[in-house]
Amino acid sequence: MSDLPRKNGWSIAEHAGDRTPDRTQRLLNHAVWDHDAAIGVVRRYAVEYLGEQPLRVAALDESGQEKQGTETAGVQRQYMGCAGQVANGVNTVYCSYATAGGHALVGARIYVPAGQLADPDRRAQLGIGDDVEFRTKPELAIDVLAEMVADHTMPPWCAGDEVYGRSRGLRQYCEDHEIGYVLRVGCDFHVELTPGTRLRTDQVATRWLADPHAWETRAVAGSKGERAYAYAYAWAWVATTSDRHYLLIRRHLQSGELAYHYCYVPPERTVTLTDLVRVACLRWPVEEDFEFGKDHFGLDHCQVRLYTALQRHLLLTMAALAVCAVTAAQARARTPAPVLPHTPDEQPPADPGLIALTVAEIKRLFALVSTPLQPVSHRLRWVWWRRRHQARARWFHHRARLRRPAAEA
After folding, report:
1. In whole angstroms, what is the distance from residue 155 CA to residue 106 CA?
2. DSSP helix/strand/coil, 214
3. N or C: which end of the chain has fewer CB within 10 A?
């Protein structure tokens, strides 16, 4: 929760007033506590306060931390989303409990390469227990979902990118447990539209959706309110031979780029196109969780090497993020509706109000009460200034959006 630019064992120990980092290192490496039970507490806490939202999605994605050398559990040269290329680092599969009112990371599994697990000496050196087996990223996602099913915190829907959408095992697990899903798939994914005829998803778009009237626009909740996707995307859905499976396709109105989603709707659950679009769009909060976790809570600041210590660092970061995310969701529910323009040429009001407290601001307030490095009046003045500045920025952002259709016409 501190404002430290880097959150690792040494900096945290110095910030806490410890003479050496021994206590912090012991907490991560040697203290006796149950990691699985602790992450269950974090998950149940988030679900308790976010679980009353009408639409709830388990959003799956992976993120990582670049590393130097080879002496860290899970490290190898692999594609790192944080770097946008193949790099040396550790990847972790995460699950975010995502709702329109708030979201938080509630599950994490470190991806450990098969090479590290095959060598007993290497296992011992990196602190990897005998119970850890090689699991692909979709299999790690299944493990996270299984924990949520076991403690009754699993939301009705699951969403993820192509890494998870192309996994037959993950899709089957969701179907076996009546979890609906909207998962990204590639253009070469095959669906059966008529008995005995299987087509690639790009062929479906070409043959069945050439008519512009087949596409519709939808508005869904975003971090800046209702986002009218008429400005960016159109959507279409296609039925398959299964009355439970659909192909959902998103088209960018400017570039024409297509994105494909394979969907499953459990029995006795009815959906509309808007429902599936909203589930698909709730995949993105996990990216915001990564951003907040790394920028404000040190999710990628870990400098430990052992497997258990790495797990515990991630867990403690997720716990701090969950507290702030839940507090922000509660604050947002009590914040008055934003003051927004209604016409392209409307002048800004003298008082645009304040945006709701964000995760970042709540984290700063926690830091304020725990480590008052500056006078309280000074810090509170900055909280007010940032919220007022962001409220004005939001107002002009919406006015610019309203002017865009007129300019294009």
Report:
1. 12
2. helix
3. C
pLDDT (tens digit per residue) in 285-298: 999 999 999 999 99
Q: Is 72 helix (H, G, I), strand (E, B) or coil?
A: coil
Residue 351 three-state SS? coil
- Collect all residues with Cβ–Cβ distance below 8 Å to 347 and sequence separation of at least 6: none
- Strand-pairing partners, residue 80, are 85
Three-state secondary-structure class, residue 161: coil
User: Going by C-beta distance under 8 Å and a sequence separation of 6 or more, which residues neighbour residue 52?
Assistant: none
Let me know if 390 is exposed, middle or buried by CB neighbors in 10 A (0-12, 13-18, 19+): middle
∠ CA(21), CA(40), CA(280), 5° rounding? 110
Q: Which of 206, 168, 209 is nearest to 185 (CA)?
A: 168
Question: Beta partners for 249?
Answer: 236, 260
**Three-class SS of 101-159:** CEEEEEEEEECCCHHHHHCHHHHHHHCCCCCCCCCCHHHHHHHHHHHHHHCCCCCCEEE
Mean pLDDT of 187-212: 92
Tens of pLDDT along 323-379? 999 999 999 999 888 888 999 999 999 998 899 999 999 999 988 888 755 567 776
Q: Are 262 and 164 in contact (CB under 8 A)?
A: no
In order, the DSSP letters of 14-51 are HHHT-SSTHHHHHHHHT----HHHHHHHHHHHHHHHHT
Residue in this structure with the two tokens 């709730």, named with its chain if needed: 282
CATH class of 9-182+261-331: alpha beta
pLDDT in the model for residue 225: 45
pLDDT tens-digit readout, 199-209: 999 999 999 89
Confidence of residue 380 (pLDDT cuts 50, 70, 90): confident
DSSP state of 232: T
Give the contacts of 244 (CB within 8 A, at least 6 positions apart): 175, 264, 265, 266, 267
Q: Where are the domains of the chain?
A: 9-182+261-331, 338-408
Closest to 50 measured CA to CA, from 347, 329, 408:
329
